Structure prediction request, 206 residues.
Amino acid sequence: MILFNGKPLVYWSILIAVKSNIFDNIILSSDWDKLIKFVKKFNFKKIKIDKRPKKLSTSSVTSEKVIRYLFNKYKIQKGYTTLLQPTSPLRNLLHLKKMIGLAIRKKLQTLHSVSKIKNKTLINGGKNTIFNLPKKLKGQPLYLNGSIYIFNNEYFLNNFSIREKKGNYFFHEKKYSLDLDNLDDLKNFGAKYYLDNKKRLKVNAK
Prediction:
């Protein structure tokens, strides 16, 4: 288990979802008993804990497959869904509220967060709409930062995808854009990390 500022990674995603006070339902989906037991200790209100099937918990399973499973199980149809992955513990509450408000107000099909931190998913600004982008960064390469994915539920059910060919994106500053998939991400971000005596990876960052 990775501990970020003393808490498991998923704690920070749940905390910001609860703090936002804008979601009708908050679902934590995992097949890992240890993680589920740990989360229950915090006694978060409004959290539905879903014990995900093992077949939907391998590295080859896409987010879309898990989302479709949750939509079917919980009869989700209309409105919007926000995916908050546990690998982004530094996401900003104001960004989250602004993005959801923007998606609803403009009736967007999708809205995802991006930053300047280079990763495998490049976003071509010329073919997409970028919100909250400083003028000095116009024309520069942007990348998905893995922090916030918002999508219309009916769009997902019709397309089985949380992305569009010409999508909508919302710029985040670097300090909110840690996407912790491996140790290289920590190095690129400049975060401090170490292994404790139980061989757990501990990360300290502001």
Remarks:
- The chain has one domain: 53-204.
- The longest strand covers residues 142-152.
- The domain at 53-204 is CATH 3.90.550.10 (Spore Coat Polysaccharide Biosynthesis Protein SpsA; Chain A).
